[in-house]
Each structure stands twice: as structure tokens, then as C-alpha cells.
Amino acid sequence: MTKLLITEITRMGPAFCVIGLQREKEKIQSIRPVPATANGWMHFPYRRGDVVECALATSPGAKPHVEDRLSTRGFAKSAAVDEPETVKFLRKAEEARSMPELFGCKICENKKGSGLFAQPQEAKRSICGCGTQNLRLEFCGNELRTTAVLSSGEVLRDLPVVDRDWRDFIDAALSPARGANRLQRLERFLNSQLHLKLLSCSHHYVRLGLTRPYHEVCWLMLDTLFPLPKADWLEEF
Amino acid sequence: MNVPPVEEQFRRIIEDCFRREAGTSGRLPEDAADLLECGALDSMGWVSFIRGIESASGAPDLGARLAERTPSFMNILEVLRDDLPATDLERPGHSGEAGNQGILSALCAGSAAALGSRRVPSEEVDRAFGMPEGKLRGRAGIESLAYASDGESELTLGADAMQAALQAAGCGAQELDWIVATSETHHNYPSLAAQLHSRLLVRENCGALDVGGACLGLFNAMQVAQALIGSGQAKAVAVVSADVHSRTLTPDRVPGEFGGLFGDGASAFLLRAADRETVGYRLRSFLFGCAGQYASAIRVSDAKDGGLALQFDGEALSRAAITRMEKVISAVELRSGISRRDVGGFATHQPNPRLVALLAKQCGVSPAVFPAVARTAGNLGPSTCGVALHKALEGSKETNHKPIFLASLGPGLVFGGGWLDFGKA
């Protein structure tokens, strides 16, 4: 049995992609349990910070998704840690300060539009954590996007946000039950209060991931943004 | 130039951006079709499509304004229509045009260039920087460099160019309302604009302003001049660039792979307010931005010991320069409605001749439409675009006064572009 600390739950269409941290002696590494018939889980009733036990095949996935491990049985929760503790462990796993360090390869700009990508054959991994000097969330045509400044000063612009909790939070904020001008209120919150919350949070941390090869390249996305959104923030706007 | 109705311009931009994103084959979706639902675009493509329209139309927050709306051509058109005052599109009676509301456009009435008078073979520069002989020629395509002689400086080169531009325009120095200068090597005070003001004996109440931006500086200066003219605050503005790299980027301060690329030169343009009937090359819209993901490719700062601290990743910078300048040219093409194949000259930054050839290839145009500057004079910083633009204007009779595209970038990575076309407003 393998013990995993769940650190990523991302929304990919109707499915969820899950990543956890595995400790092997002193080394902490990211592992992505995948079901036998797909890349994602249709049902995943656990949360970030949960420690789950599972059975995983040992052979790694194809580059750059070398963290993939075939899951041969279900999950069983054995413990849980809080957010700051989870981030402490994340800081000990894959971490980068600059763009080339993220996935061990050069990051390219989409020549005809927005977004950043890596070549699948060049990238050495598909998940990495990093600190940010600044981070902004914005809506672009109903899609949640982020722009972040890395410790190196490099800017990652227009990355899709796939973090399940953040997407759920945005959906809740835009629920018709919340009354008039929901979008404007949400945008004001994202640009002001939230910005302060993120940057003043001692465990602010992000994890960036690469999509599966799509049109022959792997696109960068924001997999996880700490702190995770809190339900009571909805009362603030 | 006849400006098509705004609605048509919006539709053209939307359709062009869509084709770029979704491919050129196939029919365009119906106006009301949900582009995600009907599978015309995925979510990445949808955002990319919106960003393309934002850049081409100058509507900065199109994406935000499309939230909670069905992703369709119809809704984009509606938001753009509502957004009219925020967009940069040229339309009769609005900004950038000699229109009914009396807003004037900037006509390029005269231009000139001045290069450092010492022509140094690139092999000599190789030796001075301790590089293998032939490296600059073989790797960068530089045959020679224009270096300033002992008596030459940013001031003398800039003043020579400015005097010649005034002469070409038939404009006396006393007519100037502003001098807008840019230089990446002149860091002294009085500033370059102030020194030019004194040197040319311009009237005292003519403003003198310096703008930065390194290799993008000339377009920043032109944008300022255009705004001064467009707002009615000035009728005649001299835009001047002048750079003497050979005294700053010396072998004891920077490596040859960087310092060896640069030469010395200046350019000047006399911009005049023009009504609708005046014929000539007019400055049209500019677009600007900053691609921070490339910030680490080049950083230059003062070191504690008085030297220069340089961070220079030549390969990353070359890649970024080509990608970004091609993007700028695409955005200018979309915004102007002018195909790059109908352009008479590309006054772009020329980091080195090899990159110019690569950019031409990437853009699918002949390298001959990029006036050669860096091959014989080296990279002149902001003056590269200036000298290239002057050459393009000089040769415009041979191209039947075709439009001229502008594109440049500087550390940051700041980027910008625009275009000039010939005719009445």
C-alpha cells in the first residue's frame, strides 16, 4: 500500500485529476494515481490535505507525465493535515524559481494567441511548485485565467485555472441565488480583497501542471492555488 | 485612405482572428452560434481568440465584458460596439483621424538619419572583444559597424539628424512645439532633448522631453508626439533618437557576443499636425505591451564598481524577439486591415541581420522589404528602427508609396508596433 498526501484535485471537463505526495525515505515526490481506463476520476470524494492509502503500479507514465501510476484499488482515508502543513510538504517536493526550472525544459509562447506550452518530448515532469511575487485571477470570456510573477521576475500570463476548489468557488460566487451584479462583485473581490488575502497569506503557494499532449504540445495550467478558497469569503462580496 | 465603417472593421477583425485560431479552412460559424458548444473552438482557443481581438481592436477588457455571455460572434460584436470609445480603431470623427471633431493626425513631414562616421570591419571588433575572427560576420551577419569618431556623440549625431529632418520638411527650428528624444546610451544631464533644444536654438517655450524604452524608445517617443498633435497641444514635433554604444558597451565591460553587435547612430522625424486634405505618410495607430515571461533574457544594470551588470541569454532573447515581433506584425496587420504582402517596408528592430532574415522568413515576406541597417552599421538600439524607417520613407517612391509597418521590442520584454500609410486622412 502507498500513502499519499492529496495535494492536487483539478477539474478536467467532467473528470478530476488527482496528485498526491509520496515520501520515500527523505525524498518527497508527486504521484498521480490514474484509473485503468482513463486519465481522470469521475468521482473523488477526498480533499486536499487528506492522507489516503492506495495500491499503485510501480511503472511510471510516459514523458512528461512521469508521475502517473496505475491505481489498482480504491482509496482509503487514514489521516488529514491542514493547509499550512500541506504547503510545507509541497515546498519539499518539486519546486522551481524560474520558468526553465519548472519542467526542466524551455517554455514557449503560443505564437498565434495566448498561453504557454512545453514540448512533450522535452519536458521532464508535468507538475511543479513555485512561489510567486504576485498573482492575479481574472475572467476572460467565462474562463478563469491567472497571471503570476515567479520569484525570478518572469511572468506567466493567461494560464487556465483548473483547481477544483477554486472553480467551485467561482461557480458558487456566480450562482443566480446571489442576486444582481454577481460578476462585477466577483471581479472586484478578485482584484482587491482576494489579492490581499493571497499575498498576505504565509502559506501562499502555487503548483503548475502540464496538460496531456494536445495539438502536439502540453499547455501550462494552474493546478493548485493556496490558500484554498473559504466558503465564508462569499459573504464578503 | 478610405476608412471602412467601424462595424465592418470589427467584423473583419473577428473573422481574421477566428481563422487564425481555428484554421483557414471551413465555413465561419453563424453569428449566434455558441463557439464552444458547436466545437468551433475549445476553451484554450476561445481565450486565445479573445486575446487576439483585444490586441487587434485595442478593446482592452473584451474578455471581462464577455463573461456570462454565450461565446459567439454576435456577442463579441455587441461588446465591441458598446466599447467604441475604448478601442483604437480608426474611424471618421474619432481619435487618430482628421475628423469632424477637429482632431488632427500626425504627418511625417521629414526624416533623416546620421551614422557614426567611423566604419569598422566586424573582424576588427571580433579582435577587440577577444572573439575568433569572423564570428560577428558568420554568426550574426554583421559586416561592419558604424562607430562614432572622437568628436561625435549622441548630441552631435542627434542634432545632425534633426537638422536634416527639419530641412527635408521645410520647417524652421522656431516652428517646433516639442522635441521628444530617446536614447539608451545617453544618461547625462541636461537630458538629450534639452541639449538638442539648446543646440538647435529652438524657441524657449518649445518643450523638451526624454522618453525611455531602450530599443522600443523611438516608437514610445512617436506615440507621445502623436498624442500631443492629436490633442491639439502641438503642431510640429521633432522626434529624435541617438545612441553611441561604442563608448558604453566596451570590451572591458561586456562580452563580445553582446557588445560586439552594437553600433552608433541617430534618426529624426518631423511630425506635423495635418488636416484631412494634406497628402503624405501619416502615423496611424500604435499598439504596445510587455511580455514579462522574457524579462530574464536580458537585464542591464549599473554595477557597484561602476561597471555594467549584464544578464544576457542570447538564444532565449533571439527566440523571444522573433516570436514577439511576428506577433506584433500580425496584430498590426489585423488592426490596419493591410496585408503584410502589401507593405512597402518593415521598419523593425534589427538585433542582428541573421534575426532579420529569420523574421522575414517567419512572416513569409521577402527580406528585401526590411531596409538593411544592422548589416553595415550594427544594432543601433532605438535608432535602428529610426534609420530603417527613414530608409523606407526615402525609398517609398519606388514602392509606389505603399504602407510601412513598424515593430520593435526592448528589455522587459516591452514591445510595440504600428503603421504609416500614404494619402489623405
SSE order and pairing:
The complex is a heterodimer of chains A (237) and B (425).
Chain A: E1 2-12, E2 15-24, E3 27-34, E4 50-54, E5 68-70, E6 76-80, H1 83-92, E7 95-96, H2 99-103, E8 108-109, E9 116-118, E10 127-130, E11 132-140, E12 143-150, E13 155-160, H3 164-173, H4 182-191, H5 193-200, E14 205-210, E15 218-226
Parallel strand pairs in A: 3-5, 7-10
Antiparallel strand pairs in A: 1-2, 1-4, 2-3, 4-6, 8-9, 9-15, 10-14, 11-12, 12-13, 14-15
Chain B: H1 6-22, H2 43-57, H3 62-65, H4 73-82, E1 105-115, E2 118-121, H5 122-128, H6 135-140, E3 144-147, H7 154-169, E4 178-182, H8 192-199, E5 207-211, H9 217-230, E6 236-244, H10 256-259, E7 264-274, E8 280-290, E9 298-302, E10 308-312, H11 314-336, E11 345-348, H12 353-363, H13 374-377, H14 382-394, E12 404-410, E13 414-423
Parallel strand pairs in B: 4-5, 4-6, 11-12
Antiparallel strand pairs in B: 1-7, 2-3, 6-7, 8-13, 9-10, 12-13
Helix pairs in contact in B: 1-2, 1-4, 2-11, 7-8, 11-12
Folded structure, characterized:
The complex is a heterodimer of chains A (237) and B (425). Chain A is α+β, with helices and mostly antiparallel strands and 237 residues long. Chain A has 2 domains: 2-88, OB fold (Dihydrolipoamide Acetyltransferase, E2P) (Beta Barrel); 95-236, no CATH class. Helices cover 18% and strands 38% of the residues of chain A. Chain A has helices at residues 83-92, 99-103, 164-173, 182-191, 193-200; strands at 2-12, 15-24, 27-34, 50-54, 68-70, 76-80, 95-96, 108-109, 116-118, 127-130, 132-140, 143-150, 155-160, 205-210, 218-226. In chain A, strands 5-3-2-1-4-6 form a 6-stranded mixed β-sheet, with helices on one face. A 6-stranded mixed β-sheet of chain A has the order 7-10-14-15-9-8. In chain A, strands 11-12-13 form a 3-stranded antiparallel β-sheet. The model of chain A has no long low-confidence stretch (mean pLDDT 93). By secondary structure, chain B is α/β, with parallel strands linked by helices. Chain B has 3 domains: 6-86, Orthogonal Bundle (Non-ribosomal Peptide Synthetase Peptidyl Carrier Protein, Chain A), CATH 1.10.1200; 105-274, Peroxisomal Thiolase, Chain A, domain 1, CATH 3.40.47; 280-423, Peroxisomal Thiolase, Chain A, domain 1. Chain B contains 14 helices and 13 strands. Chain B has helices spanning 6-22, 43-57, 62-65, 73-82, 122-128, 135-140, 154-169, 192-199, 217-230, 256-259, 314-336, 353-363, 374-377, 382-394; strands at 105-115, 118-121, 144-147, 178-182, 207-211, 236-244, 264-274, 280-290, 298-302, 308-312, 345-348, 404-410, 414-423. In chain B, strands 1-7-6-4-5 form a 5-stranded mixed β-sheet, with helices on both faces. In chain B, helix 11 (314-336) crosses helix 12 (353-363). The longest helix of chain B has 23 residues, at 314-336. Chain B is globular and about 70 Å long. The termini of chain B are close together. The model of chain B is unreliable at 91-101 (pLDDT under 50). At the A-B interface, strand 8, strand 11, strand 12 and strand 13 of A face helix 2, helix 3 and helix 11 of B.
